[in-house]
Amino acid sequence: MNVDLFDFDLPTDRIALRPAAPRDAARMLVLDGDATRDAGVADLPGLLRRGDLLVFNDTRVIPAQLDGRRGDAKIGATLHKREGPRRWRAFVRNARRLRDGDVIDFGNGVSAAAVDREEDGSYALDFAGDEPVELLLERAGHMPLPPYIAGKRPTDERDAADYQTMFAAEPGAVAAPTAALHFTPALMAALAAAGIGHATLTLHVGAGTFLPVKATDTADHRMHAEWGRIDAATADRLNAVRTAGGRVIAVGTTSLRLIESATDADGVIRPFDGDTSIFITPGYRFRGIDGLMSNFHLPRSTLFMLVSALMGRERMQAAYAHAIAKGYRFYSYGDASLLLP
Q: In percent, how much of the chain has pLDDT > 70?
């Protein structure tokens, strides 16, 4: 499909620079079948059914943004996928100043050799020393806010908490599963009281989620692989919910993509442990999920293509036009949508 079909006019002041406070005070646009209504995240227990199950991504964002030097050249790196105990694949700024094997000094006793350059311009970074890389990143790295936010203000101490979900447990993501940022212990208690369950899986979100689609046709766009895991007990629980007539509602596109990657042609969700580069566009037949809670995405993005596949492109174009007209806040720190086909 032509990527232009997924374009729309988004005023820059609609991109939220801070999250709502409290988190569950965010607004939520509900598309339920053919109906559309304005609501709030706190209304969620009354919008779902007893027996439904929400699925959260429990990945934890690491301080994956690094600024360093190679000689007199400033070099920036955004880690996006772990390739070994001490090796991370990274998108590099000012990469033209690097040669294979060059060592980048990130300060605070942290350095890495840049090797194995790929066609997309990324390098593998081999971190020096014996300390766990996680400790090195705590010393030298900072929170990798999306460029649409970081370009408007610097990262600060608030982001260290604001950009983690309450479910964050498994370190490895370089971007937050942002739909889950709206949840609080109070909201989870209200959902449980309404008979709505929850489960977790792990997908380590990569920086590729921020990359623009440069191709003119969706068939020519390459997704970067991300590692995920659904254990056998979780797969069994999700299948049991659907067998009993409940709905599996993915919280975030990351949860959705992993569930769909793990679901076979008969609609059975299988245990999963490995990489996925699934790219969902209109025409895709959903097999493992029955709905999605998601933030509002950017024009021409793979994520807007995904929600268009779930609800229909024209429906989502109209819904986003409504959201823009009504002042909804977009992207990582913005408001939410509940999409129930």
A: 99
Question: At a CB cut-off of 8 Å and minimum separation 6, what does 192 contact?
Answer: none
CA distance 106 to 123: 15
Closest-CA residue to 128 (of 159, 85, 95): 85
Helix and strand counts by DSSP (H, E) for the chain = 9, 17
- Find how far residue 140's CA is from the centre of its chain: 23
Angstrom distance (rounded) from CA 208 to CA 175:
9
Q: Tell me the C-alpha distance between 117 and 100, whole Å.
A: 7
Please enumerate in sequence order all residues whose Cβ is within 8 A of that of 109, keeping only pairs 6 or more positions apart, or say none.
129, 139
d(CA 277, CA 264): 16
Give tens-digit pLDDT for 268-314: 999 999 999 999 999 999 999 999 999 999 999 999 999 999 999 99
- Cβ-in-10-Å burial (0-12, 13-18, 19+) of 14 comes to middle
> CA-CA distance, 60 to 322, in Å (whole number)?
33
Residues listed for the chain: 341
Give this prediction's pTM: 0.92
Q: Say if strands 197-203 and 226-230 run parallel, antiparallel, or are unpaired.
A: antiparallel
Strand locations in 33-134 (E): 35-40, 53-57, 59-61, 65-70, 73-82, 87-93, 103-107, 110-115, 123-127
The Cα–Cα gap between 11 and 268 comes to 41
- Render pLDDT for 171-184 as a digit per residue (tens, 0 to 9): 999 899 999 999 99
Amino acid letter for position 231: D
Q: In the chain, what are the domains?
A: 3-61+161-340 (3.40.1780.10), 65-141 (2.40.10.240)
First-residue to last-residue Cα distance in the chain? 22
Q: Output the six-digit token pair for 216.
A: 């003119």
Helices 302-311/313-325 angle, 10° precision:
110
